[in-house]
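Sync notes, pocket subgroup
Present: LS, DG
LS reminded everyone that the earlier model was apo-only. Rerun requested with cobalamin included. Inputs:
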Amino acid sequence: MISDIFRAVVELEDEQALELVQKALAEGLPAKEILEDGVLAGLREIGRLFQEQEYFLAELMMGAKLVEQCLGILDPHLPKAEGPKRGVVVIGAVKGDLHSIGYGLVAKQLELAGYEVHSVGIDVPAMTFIDKAREVNADIIGLSAFLVTTISNCQDVINYLKDMGLRDKFKVIIGGAETSQEVADRMGADGWAPNAVEAVKLCDRLLGYV
Ligand code: B12
């Protein structure tokens, strides 16, 4: 069933993919597994096909739209943590970056883990992250960058925080397809995570929960 979802996403069979996701839920498969191993694995394969020039921008966009629809169905079925608020996170995609699915999943996973999350959207100027973080008294600023050309915009946020004497006030974490621990270290970020589950663990660690 999961492999059918993967295939339907890769082949951009909208109706079939959505039907299969509903069916998998009805049959009791965990939403997390359907999402990771079916839907998102399919999106990654679309990215690979795009890189190989077998798919073009139109297919990339259709794939993203389909995945967003699948997410809409799966969302209410993802497990939610009980208990007190864990911390406040401001998150979004940096200036020039329009990739919303990745940071959206991090935001969702953090919410499910008990964090108060403020999403600031895509193509977000450095100062908007900082203004929002101050407004909501955030603990953590999460920066998402999926393009080699936008990674340096994460650095801007860190530099502005330093210039404003606010660097110690917020933890800054980064993530996204073209980022790595090495990139995070080089720019002086407080952490990096490869996916949403690890992002929650990272925030827990930074705020001293583990
Ligand atoms: C879908 C997609 C798009 C969609 C995005 C739609 C949307 N609403 O998000 C659209 C069609 C808009 C798009 C456009 C472009 N894209 Co695009 N896109 C992708 C694709 C296929 C998937 C990205 C995605 O959403 N993945 C799903 C998520 C869940 O995957 P994930 O990375 O595992 O996410 C986790 C981590 O990244 C992490 N994470 C993410 N953010 C954060 C933040 C923090 C703080 C932390 C801790 C963790 C974290 O947690 C996430 C959840 O587990 C990737 C391929 C890829 N391999 O990533 C290319 C890719 C990122 N795109 C690419 C390119 C080239 C482009 C375009 C330039 C194409 C063009 N010619 O116009 C434009 C640029 C637009 C822009 N200015 O941003 C390249 C980038 C290459 C590079 N070296 O820079 C990629 C890698 C494709 C490729 N292989 O060539 N794209």
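DG: The first helix runs from residue 2 to 10.
LS: The chain has a mean pLDDT of 95.
Action: DG to write up.
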